Amino acid sequence: MDNNQFKSPILTVDIVLFTIIDKELNILLSKRDSGSKVFSGDFSLPGGFVHTNEDVNLVNSAIRVLKEKIDFRHSIYLEQLEAFSGVNRDPRGWSVSIAFCAIIPFSEVSTNENVKWVSISEVSGLNLPFDHNEIIEKAVLRIRNKSSYSILPIYFFKDKFTLSELQKVYEVILQQKLDKSSFRKRIEDLGVLTLLEGEYKLGSQRPAQLYTINNVKTPWFKSNLN
Amino acid sequence: MDNNQFKSPILTVDIVLFTIIDKELNILLSKRDSGSKVFSGDFSLPGGFVHTNEDVNLVNSAIRVLKEKIDFRHSIYLEQLEAFSGVNRDPRGWSVSIAFCAIIPFSEVSTNENVKWVSISEVSGLNLPFDHNEIIEKAVLRIRNKSSYSILPIYFFKDKFTLSELQKVYEVILQQKLDKSSFRKRIEDLGVLTLLEGEYKLGSQRPAQLYTINNVKTPWFKSNLN
DNA sequence: ATAATAGTGTCTCTGAGACATTATGAC
DNA sequence: GTCATAATGTCTCAGAGACACTATTAT
User: Fold this and answer.
1) What are A86's strand-pairing partners?
2) What burial letters (b/e) apply to B148-167, b meaning 16+ CB within 10 Å?
3) Which strand C nucleotides have any atom less than 7 A from protein CB atoms?
């Protein structure tokens, strides 16, 4: 029970930040700092060390790391995924990385020369540093799974959206067509969407009703207990 | 991106080990070492530092820590719960603890003077060190939730069990009566149980068929996608 | 036979999915 | 009017739950 007799593991956070681009889930990769001891200049998940002098907890560390990589004004969805660990996952030594899933509305994505967005079909062909391929795989599964029984996908929208737009996002994430009728029934029964009275999305067809989310956090469909 | 400019956080693992005693979920608490710098002599979740010289990953650390506390021959169920972190959760400083959920068959529980089993109704009345009350709360929710849509509760059995016994364990965990007929339909439809031909549990009533688990890991009920 | 638990069958209700139909805008 | 998409309605089917019924042992 004495901390001093063992070399302390390296402790980092990594973030799998999702958005939707061109009807596909995309993930943010960032170019590793030239001063980094390992994989410098390569693209990897955005991540970094915990700053014990300024972060109050790991969520805070994750947000700080993300803000160092990209600009975002709108608040993002953030959820802890899993701790990845082992004596061999990092060439520098015994390492633990707490991975997070995050979602940013596609209307808010910014970019710069140190980051790039990569679709999840492309990313599986890349050979990323550390166990970042495995982390991404698990993050995608998590997002898919949660989307199948919750309204998580609303976090891909900034504020207003139509039910058809929301359905399309579900279809992109779940990679399957959904029935319009039952989709709408499920969503509306949740009672988490507020109809924006008199507000419509105009196009070259019938205008669609705009909705926004109540300030309720990720409720579940009834299929799950509780 | 330089590790050395920040004081490294304290990194530990904590385990919420469940079993069932007297028709209630129980959790293992262990007496903290007299040499421990904080809360020494108090009861807390079993936990400890990662030993970078002998552990290969965090699962390994968790198992080692548990083995230091109690004897167990039979393999146990172990699953990562969540990383708990913050500048204030440990009086020694910025700390991260990776919490695990674990299950041991109630036929296998051993005990000694440094550990005690406490029912989850009792434990909520205790004021445990660190954020251990919060960790336990989340662990209980996780076990309850998973039990509602998976066959996780089989891990409370060593090998053979009857469907009635299994149902009783579900009822203890979920804190509600289940319908015998639909319970059996759900379980049998999963196809994960093997009927032990000719083996029955005898009592003062009609003998019950004994089953065992296929070497399948925690499948889900259909209600969840995938 | 009775008690007690094991195990099965039947009915109903609900919710999801398939699919058809109606509604409302632009042109 | 046509076209495209929004929105709603109808039908069927499957699974869960309520509950009744049958089966098999000990005594």
Assistant:
1) A95
2) bbbbbbbbbbeeebbbeebb
3) 3-10, 15-20, 23-27
- The tokens for B94 are 């910025």
- DSSP-based three-state secondary structure for B61: helix
In 3D, which of A143, A151, A223, A135 has the Cα closest to residue A184?
A: A151
Angle at A31 between CA B5 and CA A104, to 5 degrees: 100
Nucleic acid strand C within 7 Å of A176 CB: no
Cα separation, B28 vs B135, whole angstroms? 13
3-state secondary structure A3-38: HHHCCCCEEEEEEEEEEEECCEEEEEEEECCCCCCC
Residues in chain A: 226
Check if residue B223 sits with its Cβ under 7 angstroms from strand C. Answer: no
First to last CA, chain B: 39
In 3D space, the residue among A143, A214, A149, A133 whose CA is nearest the CA of residue A172 turns out to be: A143
Tokens of B68: 């230091």
SS3 assignment, position A93: coil
B57's tokens: 């990953």
Predicted confidence at residue A220, as pLDDT, reads 61
What does the block give as tokens for A84? Answer: 């990845």
Judged by phi (left if over 0) then psi (alpha if -120 to 50, else beta), residue A186 lies in alpha
**What are the backbone angles phi and psi of residue B160, rounded to the nearest 5°?**
-100, 145
User: pLDDT confidence of B200, banded at 50, 70, 90?
Assistant: confident
State how far residue B170 is from chain A, nearest Cα, in angstroms: 13
Predicted confidence band of residue A77 (pLDDT cuts 50, 70, 90): very high
